[in-house]
Every structure is written in C-alpha cells, then in structure tokens.
Amino acid sequence: MGFLAKLFGNLKKNTAKGKSGYTTLEGRHGLWFYVRCDKCAEKIPVRVRTTSEVQRREGPEADLGPGQYFVQKTIVGSRCYQRIEAAIEFDARYNVVEASVKHGKLITHQEFIAKDEQ
After folding, report:
1. Amino acid 10: pLDDT
2. Where are the beta strands (DSSP E) in the chain?
3. Cβ neighbours, 10 Å, residue 112
C-alpha cells in the first residue's frame, strides 16, 4: 500500500477546487478572464490561448502552486495605460483557484457585463 500511495499520491495534490464564474471558454482553445483597473476602473477582457499561453504545472514544479495550470500576463487598458500584472492559477477545468493582480482586481464575467452605475 505504501508503494501505491507514493505512486499515486501526487495525483491528489493538484486537485484544488476552483471558483467558477471568473473565466469563460471560447471554442476549443480560448479562455477569457476579466480584470478591473484600480486607477480608472476600466473593465478589461483578456483572452489567452490554452495551447500556448496557459502553462501546465508538472514535474518538479508541480508543488510550486495550488493550481494545475497557470498564466502570467501584463495587461494594459485603453483609458489610462496602467500596467496590470496578473498571475492566475487554474484547476483542470480552467476555474480560478488563486489570483494575484497588481494595480487591478480580477472580476467575474457577470461583473464584467454589468453596466457601471454613475
């Protein structure tokens, strides 16, 4: 039993449950997430390709983060040109497990499509 636990124990480490609603899938390889700029409150949609921009955690780096996949992006809106640095961890279904966004905030798809009250 100890041998099998060592062999298959690594499978359970990256099974963190993600929060749904922060991403939307487009076709087979498109993934959208949404951020809001802290400086001007602009809502910015960000599209990444799951085949080239989203990285899979495997090998010795599998224990470095909670998610099975991750992406790091620098995002610039069209209003104020504030650089927003985003590092987002995803589970196997591309739900957000953990997010670190400097100079902005990760928002849900519902918050993105909601009209701003002014």
Report:
1. 53
2. 23-26, 30-37, 43-49, 55-56, 69-76, 83-90, 96-102, 104-107
3. 17
In the structure encoding, which two tokens stand for residue 20, read together? 């749904």
> Rounded mean pLDDT of 36-49?
96
To which H or E segment does residue 60 belong?
none
**Tokens for 10?**
């690594």
Handedness of CA 11, 13, 19, 21 (dihedral sign): negative
Question: Which SS3 state, helix, strand or coil, does residue 11 take?
Answer: helix
pTM over the 0.90 mark: no
Q: Which of 43, 34, 91 is nearest to 66 (CA)?
A: 91
Give phi and psi for 38, each to the nearest 5.
-70, -30
